[in-house]
Amino acid sequence: MNSTSERSDGVAAVIVLAAGGGTRMKSATSKLLHRVAGRPMLSWAVAAARGLDPENLVVVVGHKRDQVEAHLHEDAPDVRTAVQAEQKGTGHAVACGLDGLGELDGEVVVTYGDVPMLTGDTLRDLVAAHREQGNLVTVLTADLPDPTGYGRILRDGEKVTGIVEHKDASEDQLAITEINSGIYVFDSAALSQGVAQLSNDNAQGEYYLTDVVTMAATGTVSAPGHRGVGAWRTDDLWQTEGVNDRVQLARMNREVNRRIVETWMRAGVTIVDPDTTWIQPDVDIEQDVQIEPGTFLNGATTIRSNSIVGPDCTITDSEIGHDVVITRSEVTLTDIADGARVGPWANLRPGTMLGPQATVGAFTETKNAQTGRGTAIKRLSYAGDVQLGDEVTVSAGTVFANNDGVAKQTSTVGDGVFLSSSTTVVAPVKIESGSFIPAGSVIDAESASAQDPDDTSDASSDNPTSEADL
User: Which residues does UDP-N-acetyl-alpha-D-glucosamine bind (predicted)?
Assistant: First the structure.
C-alpha cells in the first residue's frame, strides 16, 4: 500500500453518503443497518470517519430515513444528519450534506455508509497525501481485475484528468482497471464551487460528484495554494468494496472474520478451525486460549488464558476467567470465574455469575444466578434468581421456582447445602448453610425455616441419593 509519513490532524467535515435505496438487499431494514461482524455497516463508516477528527460529521440520509436516524440517535448522537429527499446522484447528496454547514475552511472528505472495511488509517493516509501534494481533490483508487460497474480513473501519464462512470465510458475507457472508490478529499472551497455548477446532462440524469473532479482537473474550480487532482492508491481492495446485496454481505462478513481470526492466532490463540469460528471485533482473548470449531464470540466478551471454549458455543458480552472449560453451550452477559466448567448444552443467561471451580452441567439453565466457590449445578436443572454459597451441590432435575405468577422472587442457599435430585425450591426462600434436602422435596419459606441442617433422617432408603444421581 502506498503511504505517507505525514498524518492528518483534523478536517473541516466528513460527509457519509447513506441515502441510497439499497433495493438489491431486498429487505425491510435499511441496507446500512445490516451487520458486518456484528456491527451495522453504517457504524463502521462512522467509526472510520471519526479517525479524521472532523469538525463536522454529517450522514446524508434518505431511503428508510427513520430507521437510519433512529440508529444514529442511539449509536452516534453527536453525528448530524442531512436529508436527500430525492436520490438525484452523488453530487446532489454532497450538496445536501454541505447545506447548513456554513463556510468551511480545510478539507471535506466524502465516504459511503456501505463500505464497512474502509479504515480510519486509510482515510488519514489519503488526507496526508492530499495535503502533501497540494491537490484540489484527491481520489482513493484501486486496481481491480474486474472493474465492472466502477467509475474509471482517466490519466495523462501520472496526472489524473477525470473520472468517467461505467455507464458513460467508451470501449477504451472500459478497459481501464484503475477504479474510483467514490471516496475523496476535497478542498472545501473547490467543492462548494463545483457542486454549484453541476449538471445532470448524462446517461443517468443525475448530478455526478465525479464531475467536480473533472472541474478540478480542468481548472474550472480553484482555491489558493491548491491545484489539480491527485490519487492515492490502496492495495487492500476490500477497503473500496461496497455491499449491495446479501451475497456481498456474506462475502464481507467472511473477509472481516478471516482477518480477525488470523490476528488472534498470530497473537497466541489456538483456533482449531478458523473457517467455522466467528469472532466479533470487540472480543478480547488472552494467550493460550483454545477455541474449538463452531464457536461464536460476540460483543464485549473477554476470555482469559488457558481456557477452552467449544465446540459449538456462543458467548456474548461475557467475562470468562482463566482455566475455564465451556462445551456446546450458550453464555450471555455472564461472569465465569477461574477454573469453572460449563456444559455441554448449558444456557447461561444474563446475570449469571459463577464462582471459582463452579460447575454447570448438561441441559441446565441459569439466569440471575450467583454461585460461590466449588458450587455445582448438575444436569437438567434450572437456577433463576438465586444466590448459592460455596460448595453447594444442586443435583439433577432441581428447579428454583422463581415466579409467583406476579413477580420474580429470589432464593438464598448457604454454604455446603446439598440439594438432592428432583428438588423444587419455591422462592422466596432461604436455606441455611449445611442443610441436606432429600430427593423429590418441595422447599418453600415455611419448610426451609423448619429444616435442621444436621437432620438427614428424611434421607431414608425410600429416597436413596448417590453420587450417580447428581
Answer: 17-20, 31, 84, 89-90, 112-114, 151, 165, 180, 244, 349, 367, 382
